[in-house]
TrEMBL record:
Organism placement in taxonomy: Eukaryota, Viridiplantae, Chlorophyta, core chlorophytes, Trebouxiophyceae
MF GO annotations: hydrolase activity, acting on carbon-nitrogen (but not peptide) bonds, in linear amides
Highest taxon in the source lineage: Eukaryota
Keywords attached to this entry: Signal
Record-linked Pfam families: FmdA_AmdA
Protein name: Formamidase
N-terminal signal peptide: 1-21
Annotated PANTHER family: FORMAMIDASE C869.04-RELATED
SUPFAM superfamilies documented for this protein: Acetamidase/Formamidase-like
Length: 481
């Protein structure tokens, strides 16, 4: 209930900051839930008023209301569109609106859980699901995903950023030539099949073509917003805008960013520094999926969008695509579903830090399972569960619930505690427990069945809370009644 007062304060604050966004008050959300549905598809377009940059937070006012049984459309805008402004932003009004950062105006002033880059994803939402309460389970059927075409070109491009948080920085480079490399991909159709094909690359640092980083107009907004349920403000100053713990000072009206500093900064690589040699070297069948889709955790502060949560979030599991269903445990009233970080392709591990980050439109069906009447296979759900046409997928992480398991400063500490070993233990335990319950098995039966029939995979090694998932083939096991 404390969150309700935070919602009110936030609402006033948005007005005070001159953001004209049309979000819904708690009261309006309730009213809309009570009104009879006219059966029309609800649609959430992405712009600066319906997107949130870099965090989940139970105090965000909903961008839309939906009920169990509704089909909805949601636009997702990539936070890597700044890697090629002309191809991914220019001429697309919703994307231009989100990225507007001029000396006079930043439409998305608040980037990150504390206004300073703690979280990077542009998340559309949250969507308030009528009647959802803690203990319920939200089922999200992903009906369709389609690349967003830039209306000015009719084309879709995405970016793969081999960035400083990628695993190659842990492993080391040949010749110790550390660099960040952006590869822009085009999404193409050939013979009714969709592919992503590399178009060109450019570098930050390293080698003859590497450049130190872009210069952008200084942020002009000083800000303050309630970002704790207790109503405490997060404040920031335009003059001392700190991102990822480093001050990026304002010099004569410009800020200069070192390297691939923060997704969302327009990278403006100098003309002539493109490396075209990758063009035509390979093409990858597209596998559209949503990197970050989740419900708000019950936490009294805004939560960085990078480490994944029991309520989903940044799982970066390539199986979260069309034809799949996601089951997520609800922790707050209204569930508060948000999504973004869509990819047109990515392999398990997401090794260099990103997928092919692409703006994508999605169509979904929502089904709410109430706590008293949960199907057995989601009755004790404490982690995301994915159902594909052929498999059940149990999603484990280094910490199943890092916010509640790491005693001190979990939102920062999680990044130093990343471990695939621990994620394997968690994924195994969750798989064992889930199979015992869902297939009426003993522990010994589950152990042999897992060993003989299931594959474990490394979901991602780049999101702080590393991911390991188990693939459980549906045709092998029978669901318990
Ligand atoms: C922002 O705050 C700083 C102090 O933190 C102040 O010096 C500056 O004048 C303020 N700028 C605006 C535009 O209000
Ligand atoms: C700031 O950046 C703009 C645009 O890149 C440029 O025109 C201007 O000269 C820069 N100002 C300074 C003082 O560097
Ligand atoms: C895994 O399950 C075992 C048995 O319940 C338990 O002792 C162990 O602490 C669990 N490990 C983790 C990381 O949850
Ligand atoms: C699931 O939860 C119920 C009720 O809390 C409990 O009785 C049951 O043992 C749990 N099952 C598993 C496999 O944890």
């Amino acid at each position: 209930m404390a969150s309700r007062s935070a919602l009110l304060i936030l609402g006033l604050c948005l007005l005070a900051n001159g953001i004209s966004g049309r979000r819904l008050s708690q009261m309006e959300a309730m009213d809309q839930c009570a009104a009879p549905s006219n059966g029309a598809m609800k649609s959430l377009k992405a712009d600066s008023t319906t997107a949130v940059w870099g965090y989940f937070y139970q105090g965000i006012e909903p961008a839309m209301v939906a009920s169990s049984g509704d089909e909805i459309m949601v636009e997702m805008i990539t936070h890597h569109a700044g890697d090629d402004y002309e191809k991914m932003i220019a001429g697309d009004p919703g994307v231009e609106d989100i990225y507007r950062w001029t000396p006079e105006e930043q439409t998305m002033a608040m980037r990150g859980a504390k206004g300073a880059g703690e979280g990077v994803h542009i998340l559309t939402g949250p969507i308030y699901v009528c009647d959802a309460e803690p203990g319920d389970v939200l089922q999200i059927d992903i009906l369709d995903l389609a690349p967003r075409k830039n209306p000015s070109t009719g084309k879709t491009y995405g970016s793969n950023a081999a960035a400083g948080w990628g695993y190659q920085f842990r492993a080391g480079f040949l010749d110790d030539d550390k660099r960040e490399v952006i590869t822009i991909y085009e999404v193409v159709e050939e013979d009714d099949e969709m592919y992503v094909v590399p178009d060109y690359a450019f570098r930050f640092a390293g080698g003859p073509t590497g450049y130190p980083g872009p210069t952008t107009p200084c942020a002009t907004l000083n800000g303050s917003m309630p970002r704790t349920v207790a109503g405490e403000n997060v404040e920031w100053s335009a003059e001392e805008r700190i991102y990822s713990s480093t001050n990026v000072p304002c010099d004569d009206g410009n800020q200069t960013w070192a390297g691939y500093y923060y997704p969302g900064v327009i990278t403006q690589h100098p003309t002539g520094t493109e490396d075209m040699s990758i063009k035509g070297k390979f093409k990858v069948p597209a596998n559209l999926h949503i990197g970050n889709i989740g419900l708000s955790p019950a936490w009294d502060e805004a939560v960085n969008s990078i480490p994944p949560l029991p309520t989903g979030g940044n799982m970066d599991n390539k199986r979260v695509g069309a034809g799949s269903t996601l089951y997520l445990p609800v922790q707050v009233a209204g569930a508060l579903l948000s999504m973004g970080d869509a990819h047109t392709a990515q392999g398990d591990s997401e090794l260099d830090g990103t997928g092919v980050e692409t703006s994508i439109n999605g169509k979904f069906k929502l089904t709410l399972h109430k706590a008293g009447a949960l199907p057995k296979f989601v009755a004790n759900l404490t982690h995301p569960l994915i159902e594909t046409p052929t498999e059940w997928v149990v999603q484990g992480y280094t910490y199943a619930d890092f916010l509640n398991e790491i005693p001190e400063d979990p939102q920062n500490q999680i990044f130093a505690l990343s471990s695939i070993d621990k994620a394997m233990v968690v994924a195994y335990n969750e798989t064992r427990d889930w199979m015992m319950q869902s297939f009426d098995m003993t522990e010994d039966q589950a152990i042999t069945a897992i060993t003989i029939a299931c594959d474990f995979g490394i979901t991602q090694v780049v999101d702080g809370n590393f991911g390991v998932h188990a693939l459980i083939p549906k045709k092998v096991f029978k669901m318990a009644e």
